[in-house]
Amino acid sequence: MTELYEQLDFIVNPTYEKVIEDILENGYSIVDDLLSESTVNTLRTDLLNKYEDDLFKKAAIGNRTNEVIQTGKRGDFILWMEETNSNAIQKLFFDRINDLAAYLNRTCFLGILRKEFHYAVYPEGKFYEKHLDTFQNDDRRKLSIVCYLNADDWQPEHGGELVLYLNGKNGEEPKTIYPFPGRAVIFESRDLEHEVKPAKRERLSITGWLKTR
Ligand SMILES: O=C(O)CCC(=O)C(=O)O
Ligand SMILES: [Fe+2]
To answer: What ipTM did this prediction achieve?
Structure first.
């Protein structure tokens, strides 16, 4: 009986369906309407306030138990977002992510149980060399999600592209993605090497992972 009700209240979400289709086909998906414009603007203000309050720290390479700071490889500053004591705007962000994760679990049996997200600021000229988001000692990260919070007038000339190396599966060229505000990119953490090119202006984002355990 419960199962029947579950089927009845399931509503197909075209945005999420496209994400699933893209990932199955190409290993990544670009979504330009995951967050509303007003949510993006409010998240950007929240990020900038916290950055000005000096709450960010230099990002490290490796996982939380095995961190090394290697400025040559990545030049961003990050602040982890804790869902349990997040403010109203961060809650709105997590609501959207939880909704997506629940949909993926329900339709693709992905087994997402955890997540981790951080704000990121790349000062002008900073970058992140080609890397994989899973670690040798930990491959629980399933999907990487990046949401760009850049200024409204961000142009391709400002750089800061995300480049996805598609493993040349079908002989594809690497995919270059501009970090336009409101854009989200979702990709398979275990499979896709990627890099962040230097930007000509401060580059703002939320990056995170949906994890199995
Ligand atoms: O900001 C991006 O476009 C990607 C960031 C990234 O690769 C990471 O933080 O692991
Ligand atoms: Fe990454």
So the answer is: 0.99
